[in-house]
Amino acid sequence: MTSIFVHGLGQNSSSWGEMMSFMGESNQMYHPDLFDLVKEQELTYKNLYTAFSEYINEFLESVNLVGLSLGAILALHYTLDYPEKVQSLVLIAPQYKMPKLLLKIQNIVFRFIPKSSFQKLGSSKSDFIRLTESMIDLDFSQDLKRIGCHMLVVCGEKDKANKRAAEQLAAKLSNAEILKVKGVGHEINTEAPEKLASLLTDFLKEQQRSDES
Question: Which residues contact 174 (CB under 8 A, 6 or more apart)?
Fold first, then answer.
């Protein structure tokens, strides 16, 4: 089984490191750095999604996608475009229709954060602002019914900004279940890596048994 972990905005590939260490070596696991995929191109959602799709398409076999926040949006978008390539889908703190007010507030906050904080993530402040502005009209509401793979929606109990969207997304899909992680906020992969590793391991094992039966 090949599993690909997709980090969120404000994270990088190393954000999955501790969680992956708890999952052992039962899977082939990859965790690309999203901003490295874009390379020299302008950091917009369109360019990021194109680069991400090209990365996943290089795998010959179908994959398990696990995405958090921005990573969840990319994973959901890819699954809608390439359903035959996705064996299972785990969306952590997802949005399927961009909350415009939240994105505008986020952009205002970005403007007051020191440039050095963005450089540590391999990008610039202007890149982050441009990326979020380019996402504001994303809306996958009408396409969700096309998802046919095994699916799990995960959200931290304290993640007020994304909990409602996670619940609504799971309710719209008959093949999805939702798990809320107690005592945890938005970045579950770094806040509760062992807990997340356990529930992902259980989900992937169940999915594998289902495929074999």
Answer: none
C-alpha to C-alpha distance for 178 and 171, rounded to whole angstroms? 9
Exposure string of 152-178, with b = 16+ CB inside 10 Å and e = fewer, is bbbbbeebebbbebbebbbeebeebeb
Task: Name beta bridge partners: 88.
Answer: 64, 150
**pLDDT reported for residue 118:** 65
Q: What rounded mean pLDDT belongs to the chain?
A: 89
Q: Which residues of the chain have pLDDT under 50?
A: none
Please give the tally of structural domains in the chain: 1
Please tell me whether residue 181 adopts helix, strand or coil conformation: strand
> Is residue 113 included in any domain, yes or no?
no
pLDDT of residue 127: 84
Q: Give the residue among 180, 167, 153 at the shortest CA–CA distance from 68.
A: 153
